[in-house]
Design a protein that fits this description.
Helix 2 (19-35) packs antiparallel against helix 5 and helix 5 runs parallel beside helix 8. It is globular and about 55 Å long. 73% of the residues lie in helices and 0% in strands. It folds into two domains: 1-96, no CATH class; 110-188, Up-down Bundle (Monooxygenase), CATH 1.20.1280.290. The chain has 203 residues and is mainly α. It contains eight helices and no strands.
């Protein structure tokens, strides 16, 4: 919310990366599908949480697209279409598998891959953080929520003995710790972040 308040206030997405929101949307959709009775039993919590998550990510993506420059907006729309297309293929393809065990393994592996990519996506901004020695464009609350969410589901996966949940979330916990370490290492001693627009090349 603080990130998008700034984007709306400055009328620009500046150097914020939209990739975490796209990866998170794909992850939420796949994990939502994994939690349904058609794929795995007794995982209603996974479906509920990821349904809400997908709704939030769609709102964030729409806002991001509204304030992105034209060239970037076209790329982002293409990425959104690709993500929805990939999910449709996964949904239809998995329903073609009659064996419920194989179907669960298939969707489970895909959910693992999407979870890991979602946890790693904020790390794309590390190059910028190191180069500028500033965490201004790596939102603290995004990194913190990634860590808390992955840790919670890591424990949930252990309790429910579901490797497709605890393995990727265990990796997510480690990546979340790395992001938090990076944040505090490069955080300004004054604790104040600049709120003025900053637009530079991504190259």
């Amino acid at each position: 919310i603080p990130t998008f308040r700034r984007i709306i206030r400055n009328g620009s997405t500046e150097m914020f990366s939209g990739l975490p929101y796209f990866y998170s949307l794909l992850n939420c959709l796949i994990c939502l599908w994994y939690g349904t009775p058609l794929i795995s039993p007794d995982n209603l919590l996974v479906t509920t949480v990821n349904s809400i998550g997908a709704a939030f990510q769609l709102v964030y993506i729409i806002l991001f697209l509204m304030y992105a420059e034209k060239a970037r907006k076209v790329r982002m729309i293409g990425l959104l279409i690709a993500i929805l297309g990939i999910f449709a293929i996964i949904l239809v393809g998995s329903l073609q598998i009659d064996d419920t065990v194989i179907r669960r393994v298939f969707v489970g592996f895909l959910s693992c891959a999407s979870l890991i990519s979602m946890f790693a996506s904020p790390l794309f901004i590390i190059k910028l953080v190191i180069r500028t020695k500033s965490v201004e464009f790596m939102p603290f609350y995004l990194s913190l929520s990634t860590f808390l969410m992955s840790t919670s589901f890591f424990l949930y996966g252990l309790i429910s003995d579901d490797a497709f949940i605890y393995i990727p979330n265990g990796i997510g916990t480690v990546l979340g710790i790395i992001q938090l370490i990076l944040y505090f290492y490069y955080k300004s001693p004054s604790g104040e972040d600049c709120t003025e627009p900053l637009v530079v090349s991504y190259e």
